[in-house]
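Researcher: Good morning. I'm working through a list of sequences from a screen, and I'd like to move beyond sequence-only analysis. For each chain I'm collecting a predicted structure so we can compare shapes side by side. This is the next one on the list. No need for commentary yet; just the structure.
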Amino acid sequence: MGSLRGISVAIFVVQALLASVALVSAQGSTNRSGWQTLRGNAPFVIARGGFSGMFADSSFGAYRLALLTGPPDVILWCDVQLTKDAAGICFPDLKLDNNSDIANIYKDKQKAYLVNGVSTKGWFSIDYTFKDLRNVILTQGVYSRTNKFDGNNYAIMTVQDTYTLLKPPGFWLNIQHDTFYAQHNLSMRNFVVSVTRNVNVTVGYISSPEVAFLQSIATLFRRNATKLVFRFLGQKDVEPSTKQTYDSLLKNLTFIKTFASGIIVPKSYIWPVDANLYLLPSTSVVLDAHKEGLEVFASEFYNDVPFSFSYSYDPLAEYLQFVDNGNFSVDGVISDFPITPAAAIDCFAHLGKTASKQVGLLVISKNGASGDFPGCTDLAYLKAIEDGVDVLDCPVQMTEDGIPVCLGSINLIDSTTVAQSSFSDLTTTIPEISQGSGIFTFNLSWSDIQSLSPVISSPQSDYKLFRNPKFRNAGKFLTLSELLAMAKNASSLKGVLISIENAPYLAEQGIGVTDAVLNALSKAGYDKQTAQTVMIQSSHSSVLMNFKGKTNYKLVYMVDEDIGGAQSGTIDDIKRFASAVVISKDSIFPENTAFLTTVTDVVPRLQAANLSVYVQTFSNEFTSQAWDFFSDGTVEVNSFYMGGRIDGVITDFPKTSDRYRRNRCLNRGNTPGYMSPVQPGSLYELITPEYLPPAEAPNPYLTEADVLEPLLPPVRVAAKAPTSTPSGTETTPTSSNGQPKVASGVILPLTTVLVAIYVLF
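Model: Good morning. Structure tokens for this chain:
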């Protein structure tokens, strides 16, 4: 029990914070018929090193979180290493320096050994007794993951301690380097035999990539409940005892069956990808293994390491591809993020395309399905409809010839190839619209814009996460009228959302965007129908006030900054011209260095005033999400709906949100742990003082001055061509929504504005 000495008290806070999760996790059920596994049971979830996607691999924290968020029968995976005194420890690698602070404890003690014939330098377990390792602390070994929990002093644990402390439903020992230990007079076989004979430890599975090792223990386990599993490595890697490549051994599964009851294969063995990282047809590996009576466990599942563009950065979709594809199912998945496969198997598998919605979450597109195709193109909109979106959006921009079109930005550089076209000399700077220079839609005719190619948006490109490169320039842009015609023909849609920005500036230039929108809606018959709701969105209260006197359309006010709350008077003002509000994710769950810190009262206060609350923007890329959501967009949506109580999401990946609201776990009496919302601040509280980021100032309150605006100016009869602003010229200060600010002494009271509108109309 000496390995417990370094376990921080903080980990027990994890148990307290997630106690509610633990209470309901046992309610999960994976015993449904229809599974295409070897024995017809649901696939197992094997937590590699515990929840190693969050906490240090093989740490108490990682294992405990896996138990709290995994299915009732989750299996904990332990990579076994041997110390100098033959103690077996759970540690992810043969070398200790990548996942611990041993290099700081035993400086200048690294050595070089041959590992599979390759000279390898590092700190090896064979050079230290278990007592030597008592002061060594486990750390996060994947540098792209957060290291903020490394201050919790998680100690290296023996195999026996890991089991007796955690008492997992299933326990898996992986023996990766038997040959190496044998070369140093340490017997992995003797260790495995001693552990399995320990009445206090139950080992369900033992795996190894070495044939000779499994053969040496096979006779000992033929009448034992412990299953032996052969682990395949890279296809061209050479297995040390047979001297055959692993792809060669894959062709002789009959031989594998003589000493193993199952196989582990990297997921690429089953669903390979082409040179451009798109999925190829599946191989026959699973079906071939099942014919031989071998279970198949797929490995290398990481939510934060994208494998194929075909999954649209959605890890849950990837798991479903392996367990619910209609042809076969693997018998288990080995994951660093066990919460995701647990939900995939129990809540989402076998739903079918006609599964009914379990909750009333509204799904609104963001430039169509702009995570899969260039935004605001026919392909993006058709994909959004196919993916179950409720409301199709159109950010309206105006062309030089007065046509309202759907484009994500008034600056064509953001979404087209205009900078590489003959129009590149039209670059100008308009401070009222944006700080930088651009080529704006009102400088080109509709036919000019049609000649440009769309460009897909990749908002996480700084992290080398690019969207669907095969279709980077696919699709064609649509006018507002064309979008309305498409929407009218889609019976599944509940409505359309038309967003209008920069209207005050455009009016000064002789461009009437609000009139253009009203005319397009009228010509499309939307002013005389009730089948689909028309929503008009703007961050300009003056725009919404303009519509309020003319239509019965639903008006949506967009708050274009992160807020920490809203004054009562401000909410009353919003209610006078809108029935819904769009806010940012950070306005509900504020973050500090990507950790949720608390929850605000913004949503309940807006809803108390009968204002619907829609939140933007939900994306699949894990870098767009807080650490608390475990690199899983479904966890994020679930937490905002179940925990934040929002009414709708605005998303560039509508499929993720639509699938979420159809999952079978939502209407259970007790929600399983893997579908429970995260608790804001629970992970942040586990960060020790030396790792805490600097405190951040709270988001500002939304005030009446932020909301109230002068009347929308009349459209000038003679349009004035926009001109660039010379460098150093003083300009009128603007608010964050582009509306010129007015001194507080001359802001018209809202009642005066309402009277003026009444007189005018």
